[in-house]
Amino acid sequence: MDESEALAEARAGLAAGFADLPGVAMDGFDPRIAEVLGEVATRLHDNYPYFHPLYAGQMLKPPHPVARLAYALAQEINPNNHALDGGRASSAMEKEAVAEIASMFGWQEHLGHLTSSGTFANLEALWVGRQLAPGKTVLASSQAHYTHSRISEVLQLPFDSVATDERGRMDVDALGARLGRGDVGMVVATAGTTGMGAVDPIAEILALRDRFDFRLHVDAAYGGYFRLVDTLSADTQAAFAAIMGSDSVVIDPHKHGLQPYGCGCILFADPSVGRFYQHESPYTYFTSDKLHLGEISLECSRAGALQADLT
Ligand SMILES: Cc1ncc(COP(=O)(O)O)c(C=O)c1O
Predict the structure, then answer these.
(1) Taking the alpha carbons of 107, 109, 114, 117 in that order, is the dihedral positive or negative?
(2) pLDDT tens string 27-58
(3) 16 C-alpha to center of ligand 1: Å?
(4) From the alpha carbon of 194, which atom of ligand 1 is closest?
(5) How far apart are CA 304 and CA 94, in angstroms?
(6) C-beta separation of 186 from 217 below 8 A
């Protein structure tokens, strides 16, 4: 069996679940659709071959075949995980996938969901941090992703950067000195910087949290999946293990999780931060009075097909 046969068989299985829907008279396949598809295929030649297993020009591998195929399959339904009514099955899959991601960091209890990107997931982390410490400064290393200074700007939070050591990791002494000024609400540690792959010394940063009262967010958008690798240096392994003690983590399934774009994930250690998301939207929440994904996410519509491919 090859990929297209596997997809055809799964599509038939999916269709069987909806076999008793009334038939609808269609005028047949419009040949202009094939024309448009052909044109799109030709225009897509203007790309580097990101999908090819030997292509190494990007920092990421192509999506796993099962992720691509499951996405294509679920796209037939086009579920929307904004509300349970928009995507019951894929919402259940999202919760399972998020729980598995949380368990990578040793979290059984957590609040989390998938997002369209690492940027949006980080926005939610910093937004929750702002609810808890309005007006306080966000600190990240000079090697952190530029998204943190921009998100701070959007949230109207002061932002400052902390020097790094010769390996591109946050300098803990510099951090300690900066924290001493007393205006910091949140520290962003990076587990895998975009430029150098450096992992900040998270255990040492956590030790500072005992002295200075701040929230620790770990941006593991790029490096998070390396938590599963057991050949890292001892200090890097220790830093990954320490993520367990952080307040929030971002990890991107659409990076080393080998999922198609766009799929980020935000996790909070304390489920009670869900209170900040509370809002009224009677036109989307009909069938369940349980807290569901649309109520713990800043984004509204989200492709449920993505959650299906993660499962
Ligand atoms: C460490 C880190 N954080 C955040 C981001 C932003 O993620 P996204 O491109 O999914 O918005 C990236 C992207 O490369 C990253 O490497």
Answers:
(1) negative
(2) 888 999 999 999 999 999 999 999 998 888 88
(3) 40
(4) 16
(5) 8
(6) yes
